[in-house]
Amino acid sequence: MSVPVIEMTGITKVFPGVVANDGVHLEVAGGEIHALLGENGAGKSTLMSILFGLYECDSGVIRIRGREEKIRGPNDATALGIGMVHQHFKLVHNFTVTENVVLGLEPRTTVFSRPWGNLDLKTAEERVRGLSETYGLSVDPRARIENITVGMQQRVEILKILYRRADILIFDEPTAVLTPQEIDELLAIFNRLKAEGKTIVFITHKLKEIKAAADRCTVLRRGKYIGTVNVKDTDEQKLAEMMVGRSVNFRIDKKTASPGELVLKIENLTVVGSKGVPAVNGLSLEVRSGEIIGVAGVDGNGQSELVAAISGLLPVKAGRILLKGRDIAHESIRRRNESGVGMVPEDRHRHGLVLDFRIDENMILKSYRRRPYSSQLGFLRFPAISGHAESLIGEFDIRAGNGPATIARGMSGGNQQKAVIAREIDLSPELLVIAQPTRGLDVGAIEYIHRRIVEERDKGRAVLLVSFELDEIMALCDRIAAVSKGRVVGVVPAEAADERRIGAMMAGVGA
Ligand SMILES: Nc1ncnc2c1ncn2[C@@H]1O[C@H](COP(=O)(O)OP(=O)(O)OP(=O)(O)O)[C@@H](O)[C@H]1O
Ligand SMILES: [Mg+2]
């Protein structure tokens, strides 16, 4: 075999209380698509951050194209032709695509072939257009970031690194924020990048994507290197086992629902979205206790605004949200929480956690005023607070290096998600609204979270699940409501649902 493009050997990185990488090995051949797989907290992002110079490893050797390198920062990485697309994009929203791409490397106009004052956006725009065409990215160089979809924003991030002439491209969970359609498109882009000789390393939890796009896959578990396999010689079951160290059950075992009283009744709801027009437009929906209703739809059909309106983050323009017969549409958020609405928000960073708080503090964000977390005089009682976090960490298998004292920001993405879900389930709400619950979770964690959601149903909670993953909706829900353009197009029992029928409804064709 020729010299690997990336060779990382014996990489060790310790954070307070946790060995994030423990003698890890990674070898990537030039021009391959290499997947990096591992449970939440296994050390994948850490390893890639070391390669990109964001962290310095405590020990280990990195060779790029056969030469040993010390990568002290992103500038070193860029100089070596390494680019990284982070899970949370770093774009300036009111700038255009081109302005974002050239940020930090602005070309200047020349006079007598010397750089002179002005920013030469025209040349930049031409180059951005050229790159976009070569790789089939279909990005409009003049569009403003705030007006383009998340999928397009990701392509701008790709353009940014191509513009800097990267030929080693690292993606940290690029598909976690994409719709199924956008995922297919991204995997096609990967193949075009590969055809042009680029090397790609991407992190994902979705075994289907690895089967569809990767040549080889390296697996980490709890900071350790487990192995590297040829993707065509393996299958999803084997990959899952390598990753969690036991066999994983992909099917959800649940008995038929026995719905009870009506808990949530939404009548003719209208909610104005960020574009100033109704995103939810006369939507009606019912959820009973003891059942899981899934909202299926293509991203941008009012699902996010529906969830925001129930939680109180967006005002309701018209219609009613009845919780056991009482209209909560205009109540304060605290009042809604106290009347039994639990909420797992779509964006865990913005609405789920206070990132600079400790995990134990995050676990009582909605209950700190109650006993035993507050004393009669209103003082916080720390032993009770940290004991509470301790038990949720155990129950939900949240991996946090410093236990209850861990700062939320330092936890891996999947463990942050588990923390939010743990807090909301622990409140035992009558209505549990869950948006994209398994985004960024590994298969073992998904199995667990799905089981917990079914358990909550069986305890008599009403569950409203919003997910872009049709597989998840079909597996978990008792009834499925397809939404299109802010309205429910039809509701079908899960047994009667098949992917094509739901797909047609999502496209606006009635049941
Ligand atoms: N900046 C940090 N400070 C302290 N601990 C950290 C920091 N970054 C990561 N860790 C810890 O290192 C371990 C590995 O984290 P990492 O983010 O690499 O996991 P991951 O494999 O990317 O997980 P996920 O799939 O959930 O994103 C975790 O236990 C995490 O809590
Ligand atoms: Mg990660």
Question: What keyword list fits this structure?
Answer:
511 residues, binds magnesium ion, Rossmann fold, 17 helices, six-stranded mixed sheet
Straight-line N-to-C gap: 56 Å
Which sequence of strands runs across the widest sheet? Answer: 6-9-10-3-11-12
Radius of gyration: 24 Å
Q: What's the CATH class of the largest domain, please?
A: Alpha Beta
Q: What's the CATH topology label of the largest domain?
A: Rossmann fold
Tally of individual domains: 3
- Binned strand content: 25-35%
By DSSP (H or I, 4+ residues per run), the number of helices equals 17
- Can you list the ligands bound to this structure? adenosine-5'-triphosphate, magnesium ion
What level of helicity do the residues show?
25-40%
Quaternary structure state of the chains depicted: single chain
Count of strand segments: 22
Question: What class, by secondary structure content?
Answer: alpha/beta
Summarize the structure.
With 511 residues, the chain is α/β, with parallel strands linked by helices.
Report what the structure shows.
The protein is of the alpha/beta class and 511 residues long. It has three domains: 239 residues, Rossmann fold; 140 residues, P-loop containing nucleotide triphosphate hydrolases (Rossmann fold, 3-Layer(aba) Sandwich), CATH 3.40.50; 82 residues, no CATH class. 32% of the residues lie in helices and 26% in strands. The strands form five sheets. Strands 6-9-10-3-11-12 form a six-stranded mixed β-sheet, sandwiched between helices. Strands 18-19-20-15-21-22 form a six-stranded mixed β-sheet, sandwiched between helices. Strands 2-1-4-5 form a four-stranded antiparallel β-sheet, covered by helices on one side. Strand 19, helix 15 and strand 20 form a beta-alpha-beta unit. Helix 14 packs parallel to helix 15. The longest helix has 16 residues. It is globular and about 75 Å long. The mean pLDDT is 92. It binds adenosine-5'-triphosphate and magnesium ion. The site of adenosine-5'-triphosphate (ATP) has 19 residues, from strand 2, helix 1 and helix 14.
